[in-house]
Amino acid sequence: MKSHEPAISRAASSRVLGVVAAFVFQVLAIADGELRKLLRDPTEVLTRSIQPILWLLVFGQVFTRVRAIPTGALRYLDFMAPGVLAQSVLFTAIFYGIAIIWERDLGILHKMLVSPAYRSALVLGKAASAGVRGLTQTAIIYAVTLLLGVRVRLAALPMFGVLVAVLLGSAVFSTFSLAIACIVKTRERFMGIGQVLTMPLFFASNAIYPIEMMPGWLQVIARGNPLTYLVDALRALMVEGGRSAFGLGLDLGVQLITLTILVVIAGRLYPSVVR
Known about the structure:
It is a single chain. By secondary structure, the protein is mainly α. The chain has one domain (30-274). The protein has helices spanning 5-40, 43-66, 76-93, 98-106, 108-113, 119-147, 156-184, 187-203, 216-223, 226-238, 248-269.
């Protein structure tokens, strides 16, 4: 029996590696298809950049002069810039779920669901493509903040950290969006729920003011809001003098755990959208 144990172990390892390789291939295939859509219509990225740019140009410039919000050693514009980037990630990703409703109506989703692909790979592939969309928003926000004189960190390591945080944040909110789309199943209901969710998520975070300024009940909500941890990570990584209130490990850990939970939930809900 002992002579057969190494062979059995190798066979089991090969099966595991095969499953992992198939899963990764499926994720990349779905992401590639989604990114091809973006390349055919890049105007979507530009139009979604207008709102965060206006926040920086108008709201940020005004409140920097007023100095009504205590931001410590940071100018208000510097304090706000990471929050605006997080807002851009949120607003781009939260409506991502409408894509599967369109795919259902066009019959594309039915073809995906009868394929041998893992449901979680379908969800994670879409999350990965949403992350790339978030990176395009990051490039635009960085360009605007530099023009406005925000003291942005341009060293390689902090910028890499920003990219990781944006990828995770985009994946979290796009997967959340997919789960909602699987439940509501119609474009009209989805758009209504998406519009209801975006502002509460944004304002119940530390994006444009410190958590310490909030009333106690809102602080509790803010600490349970994934956007708060995305903003906290970006603030520590993106601007000179920025500090993380929770620690980068916790910020990224919360994003990763939230993403894992949402991928499992969305993967289970995914087939229900065609019913």
